[in-house]
Design brief:
single chain, globular, two-stranded antiparallel ribbon, eight-stranded mixed sheet, 241 residues
Length: 241
């Protein structure tokens, strides 16, 4: 599928899900279009996730900063897990915030909020991260094969690629997304080599195990424009290494 056709197909799936969530009054956002949905039931999804053995084994979690995954980040810190969270748009050479529950100066419920984390948490370079037991992604839509799409900026995929190249994502790393049931779509989701699939989908009422989700082996430089690379210092550094 040509790039433009693929982008249109992905956007059609996003619009379908955003419209369904809006019609069902299933989100906290006044307008969900263009966002990772802050879905109603996020706390219940986080609680369901916390019951899973993969979560209970995990000591190091990389989580997105979206509001929908705030309850996941709070629970991780409350349970003593180290949490890494990306700097917005990966815009600094040290592109991850380090939230260490042993050194927090505010309660986990505050520290896990993206604005508070930006104010209190040190930032670290990719190579300074510890190997990741669990990666928590936000999604606009996901299907039972593990294919997912975000809001279209591509930062989750770039993060994953950088972490994979740094050997911080291993075959044992579990990738999950927490979503509303309406975000689990039957519509085929077109994917490319750099798209990250998920091992588990967790909704407030269900846990879905995905068969053989796709994982990129590293940065797909051919999919990145020079302009995009220039805005992400960690990519610039890796390209020049």
């Amino acid at each position: 599928m040509a790039a433009n056709s693929l982008d249109r197909a992905k956007q059609a799936v996003r619009t379908q899900v955003w419209d369904a969530l809006t019609a069902a009054d299933a989100v906290h956002d006044s307008s969900v279009h263009g966002r990772i949905p802050h879905f109603k039931g996020a706390e219940e999804a986080a609680a369901r996730l916390a019951e899973l053995p993969a979560w209970q084994r995990a000591g190091v979690v990389k989580a997105v900063p979206d509001k929908a995954q705030l309850p996941v980040r709070v629970r991780a810190l409350e349970e003593g897990k180290t949490v890494y969270m990306a700097v917005p748009k990966l815009a600094t050479l040290k592109p991850f915030y380090l939230l260490d529950p042993a050194t927090l100066t505010v309660p986990p419920t505050e520290a896990a909020a993206s604005r508070t984390a930006a104010a209190i948490a040190p930032t670290v370079e990719v190579d300074a991260l510890r190997p990741l037991d669990l990666i928590v992604l936000g999604s606009v839509a996901v299907n039972r094969d593990g294919a997912r799409i975000g809001k279209g900026a591509g930062y989750s995929d770039i993060e994953f690629a950088l972490l994979t190249e740094a050997s911080l994502v291993t075959p044992e790393t579990i990738v999950i997304t927490t979503v509303h049931a309406l975000q689990v779509t039957q519509t085929p989701i077109p994917t490319t080599e750099h798209d990250v699939g998920v091992d588990l989908i967790v909704t407030p009422d269900q846990t879905i195990t995905c068969p053989n989700p796709h994982r990129p082996s590293g940065v797909d430089w051919s999919a990145l424009t020079a302009e995009k690379i220039a805005t992400i210092p960690a990519l610039v550094a890796r390209q020049g290494a």
